[in-house]
Amino acid sequence: MSKALFHYTPVVRAVVILRDGVINRSTGKTPPYVWLSSNPTNEPTANRVPLNPEWFHQCDARALNALERQARFVFHGYAATPWAALRLSSVTRRNLERKAKDKGSRPEDWFTLPDAVPCRGLPLEVETLEGRWQEIEQDELKRRYEDLEVMFDGNRIAYFRMGRR
Fold first, then answer.
1. Partners of residue 71 on adjacent β-strands
2. Which domain covers residue 87, as residue numbers?
3. What is the DSSP string of 62-76?
4. Extended strands (E) in 106-155
5. How many CA atoms lie within 13 A of 150 on its CB side?
6. pLDDT in tens, 47-85
7. Predicted model pTM
8. Residues in contact with 144: Cβ distance below 8 Å, sequence separation at least 6, in sequence order
């Protein structure tokens, strides 16, 4: 039996992934792969959404949950490449190791897939207030946040708004 791997992401990004139907490869400061972790509780290097203090005045509890809570897609039986086997420059490898150490992560937990992955059919879990993971239907998470409008500029949210329900 193969080990479960997880793609950790903030709930707000999980909603965008579900709308797009695909987990895209990373862009920016990390090499362009779909990054997974074997850590069953958390991946400290997963992108957290930098919160803009102005949002607190306009956000209700549902909006804050989308920004602060994590989600994860669960991968079973995928032939992912351990990060140590990636062909990376020594500078890139050192930078990733430093990022791991700074955030309390372990590179030996990291795996990658070379191409974007359709998310349909992947189990999806959301972090509860108690810090546990609870499975949720993909359509249910999309429904909860059907009024979410968000645009990203790299890792930062350029625009965020939720309608009133």
1. 9, 126
2. 5-162
3. HHHHHHH-EEEEEE-
4. 110-113, 117-118, 124-127, 133-136, 148-153
5. 25
6. 776 666 666 666 677 777 788 889 999 999 899 999 999
7. 0.90
8. 62
